[in-house]
TrEMBL record:
The lineage of its organism: Bacteria, Pseudomonadati, Pseudomonadota, Alphaproteobacteria, Rhodobacterales. Keywords: Cell membrane, Heme biosynthesis, Membrane, Transferase, Transmembrane, Transmembrane helix. PROSITE patterns: UBIA (PS00943). Carbon 2 of the heme B porphyrin ring is defined according to the Fischer nomenclature. This is Protoheme IX farnesyltransferase. It comes from Paracoccus sphaerophysae. Interacts with CtaA. HAMAP family: CyoE_CtaB.
Length: 310
């Protein structure tokens, strides 16, 4: 396993001046889009109505907090990113952005996001956002990611908090509905990333990241994926029985979870020889399905709430 240390820029000279796109990439916009969407749904489906402008500001500051987490993650993980094929073109390992600049951006946006969310919504939601940033940047990035194959399981909580923060912006608290939205993202995260790890194992191995595929092998990872799809389905369907669920959401959840369980079962039954022979086609299909799965569940919650309002 690689030693934990901040990334040192190449000694050939100072990093060139970064462009606007590099700073955008630093905030992990694809991850931020998931944060924004789930936080917005959490806020919108809450039983307390929020002024549209305040709601917009709340989601904006949650997004900034998510971007700050991404910047801090890229600062600390630059040594890993430089080794992995899918991340080596990120701004820091590619030499377009100095590590110190990334750290400064992450810290500044963290403070700005937390303070402004407290002023725009409430201080409970702001404290929740501060804890989420800390959990992702310190607990997951600096500790779990490099020390345990449970990294993505426990660390996945950071990505599951945004809908709870959105709900807290509206209500000032936590409820069974927000906890089940958390559970939906939390139990989705391991099979999503483990499916990726099945066909990207060498990346994690070369970087010294103790992903489950590296420490326990692909066969054990396949078993874990199937177990988590079953647990995930239970929480996804349970969410449909709460005040924010309904027939439309339940219909979507039944179809998607049937497809997801089938995909998990297909992966479980495959041998490594079969996967290599077809280029991990089933694993890649499952990974793509997982992206649709989460978006569609939260979209169904949103449409269900809009239908209820009408």
């Amino acid at each position: 396993m690689t030693d934990i240390h901040a990334y040192d820029a190449p000694a050939s000279g100072a990093a060139p001046e970064a462009g606007f796109g590099d700073y955008v990439a630093l905030l992990k916009p694809r991850v931020m889009s998931l944060v924004v969407f789930t936080a917005f749904v959490g806020l919108f489906v809450a039983p307390v109505r929020v002024d549209p402008f305040i709601g917009f500001c709340a989601v904006l500051f949650i997004a900034l907090g998510g971007g700050a987490s991404g910047a801090l993650n890229m600062w600390y993980d630059a040594d890993i990113d430089a080794v992995m094929h899918r991340t080596r073109k990120r701004p820091i390992p590619a030499g377009r952005l100095a590590p110190g600049d990334a750290l400064a951006v992450g810290l500044f946006l963290s403070g700005l996001a937390v303070v402004m969310l407290g002023l725009a919504a409430n201080w409970f939601a702001a404290a929740f956002l501060a804890f989420t940033i800390f959990f992702y940047a310190v607990v997951y990035t600096m500790w779990l990611k490099r020390s345990t194959p449970q990294n993505i399981v426990i660390g996945g909580a950071a990505g599951a908090f945004p809908p709870m923060i959105g709900w807290a912006c509206a209500t000032g608290g936590v409820s069974i509905e927000s906890l089940l939205m958390f559970a939906l993202v939390f139990f989705w995260t391991p099979p999503h990333f483990w499916a990726l790890a099945l066909f990207m194992k060498e990346d994690y191995h070369n970087a010294g990241v103790p992903m489950l595929t590296v420490t326990h092998g692909r066969h054990a990872t396949r078993r874990h994926i199937f177990v988590y799809t079953m647990v995930l389905a239970a929480f996804a369907l349970a969410l449909g029985l709460t005040s924010i669920g309904g027939p439309l959401y339940l219909a979507v959840a039944v179809v998607l979870n049937a497809l997801f369980i089938h995909g998990g079962w297909t992966i479980l039954r495959r041998t490594e020889d079969q996967a290599v022979a077809d280029g991990y086609r089933a694993e890649k299909s499952f990974f793509k399905l997982s992206l649709v799965y989460l978006f569609a569940h939260f979209a169904a919650l949103l449409v269900q709430a809009m239908a209820g309002a009408w």
